[in-house]
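Narrative summary of target 7.
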Amino acid sequence: MTNQQNGSRLYLFSIVLVAIIGGLLFGYDTAVVSGAEKALEAFFRNGLGDAYTKGWHGFTASSALLGCVIGGAISGFMASRLGRRRSLIAAAVMFFVSAVGSWYPESGILPYGEATTTLLVIFNLYRILGGVGVGLASAVVPMYIAEISPARIRGTLVSCNQFAIIFGMLVVYFVNYLIRNSLGDTAEAIRVAMETIGWRRMFLSEAFPAGTFALLILLVPETPRFLALKGNDDRAYRILERINGATEARSILNEIKSTIHEKREKLLTYGAAVIVIGVLLSFFQQAVGINVVLYYAPRIFENMGATGDASMMQTVVMGVVNIIFTVVAIFTVDKVGRKPLLIIGSAGMMVGMAALAALSFTDTIGMAALVFIIIYTASFMMSWGPICWVLIAEIFPNTIRSQAVAIAVAAQWISNFAVSSTFHSLSEWSIGGTYCLYALVSLASAIFVWRWVPETKGKTLEEMSKLWKK
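Modeled conformation, tokenized:
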């Protein structure tokens, strides 16, 4: 029941819970290929032979990333034209179609089970479509939560999206593991089944959360900020009243309406600084090397002697650590603030990377390497992982938010691609030197936050206009 003074927390939390399913699908879609890529390689190589090169397989395993860049780039147009809610509906449909299409790329047209060049292209088109959904959701979900949430708990609620992303990755690791182990009693039987139906089932598994998201997102409202910017004050007020209570709702609506006259503002109305800071937040989140460290972790586990189920359990341990420290961020971001957590996280990542570099230079692979990887990833998950998304969602003024978020998110996926694609070349030069480079970037990220990023804790979204006009 709604409290006229304080609003309904249950209503707010139920809306946020639906929205963060988009984050869960973000994590699910980007991680599902990890369990299927070896079987995919065998399937296409059996049909195409030497025509299925390493380059083709690299593209097939990461083609969704191309879609992520596209989805991030178009998110501003879609969020400002269609609205935040309809953009999320579009992302849910893309997730669902991609899951079903990746399961059955023949689509009733091509012969089933025959690996041809045409089938390879169609499969990658379905994966790119899913990537567009990821890019769209990665921009719009934090924006939606930020615009629906009261200022005092906005950071906490937006951080829940990062929890959902990590949780989605952990869920799909378990789902892939269960699908694989259900295919046979022997290693050979499992291998054969994986090459025919196993990889298909892994991709299809995403259709269930995607379908659920598509249905539930129909039940949540559009954000009050978007409604007010479109002149629908009555609906905006009713939603604000339900969330914040009558008195605060009127005050918030008046603040929003005070920016309405600015709705035709150009992207650089507040200067280039706000856009540059948003882009650099995205750049540093990827340039500290988080993805390549997570990719390299299994090799370290193997060097430590872990195989089979032991390696799987160490991956799960990493996933649990990631979730625990994301929860730390959720409960501290609105108390400690954004800047202190980012600076502390940068310091922790620098220590972890510097130590891994030292271990690499001395060729020491052991428990110490695992400890420092955990220090590094824990530092990232309590800081840059969730809080970068919080800042991107809230730091831009209302009138340019959708376009500015699109630029920042596209920059993030481009940075992701650039860092991931250069890792192998850098590691051939020197693993220790590569880790030293990431340690220096972590130090630079701390200096950047200290000098240029404003603290936004407790500020309303409408106050961002005043902040940047200064």
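The radius of gyration is 23 Å.
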